[in-house]
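Thread: "does anyone have the structure for this chain?"

Original post by V.I.:
We have the sequence but no experimental structure in hand. Need at least a predicted one for the grant figures.
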Amino acid sequence: MTAVALLFPGQGAQVLGMGQALVQRSPIAAELFARASETLGYDLLDICVNGPTERLNSTECCQPALFVHSIAALETLKTDRPEIFSDVQAVAGLSLGEYSALAAAGAINFEDGVRIVQARGAAMQASSDKVASGMASVLGLAAEKVACLCDVARQPGEILQVANLLCPGNIAISGHAGSLQAAEKAASDAGAMKYIRLSVAGAFHTSLMDSAVEALGTAIDQVAFQRPNVPVYSNVDAAAHLDPADFRALLTKQVVSPVLWEQSLRNLIAAGVDQFYEIGAGRVLSGTLKRIDRKIACECISD
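Reply from O.Q.:
Generated one for you, tokens below.
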């Protein structure tokens, strides 16, 4: 018997035009975008399809966009290929994608999910606006070396740390702008293949997001979490969770904690998962899986 896990992308996977083909062929997807727009107070589909790109890429907009697109793709897949879902054993999502995973597992309903990610995006954008900061990907180095280069590059009084352990050789760091600039040379000196600044508003998954925690916590406290239908793997500890009481603490801690994505995938594989589906924009997650185990199948579902 095949054991399936569903994976959901996070910020950075968005692309102009996302959702257009999906809503044209799927009434369910069109309805979900319409419901989300009513909740958000603006035409989400229009921004996804027509932009402008700067608006779609903004933290406060792209987080709802990715969440809604993922759930629209998921519900369309349920109609197109319902046989898949009898084999689903677990779900996981990268950063923002964890909210899509929670909705997919039935832990939160769609409208609550839209409201939370809207609040999350706004809170993270507000935190980012307070200080010049950002993120970068370091390719070709082990996590231990990346942590060391952060220690070398960190400027006095600033923050610079590992923020996202995606897969072997792909580690994201996060912190103040000055330290990130210094880290480019430190990464080269350490033998990194590439150093790529990421198009995000600020230093996500560090204490520079502390001011976002209260606003996010307020939004989360207004939601009634249910016991999920399948385990949800958390970015914070890479462990499977079924208790609704866990999610409030995990989701607020997530914005200031490193994302343990590689370990989450390894734990899913160890639990017996042998078929993954990446549901939503992009192919980043299938790429991380290939770096961990090329024999494990992953199908990308976008439109």
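V.I.: this helps a lot. The chain has a mean pLDDT of 97.
O.Q.: and The first strand starts at residue 4 and ends at 8.
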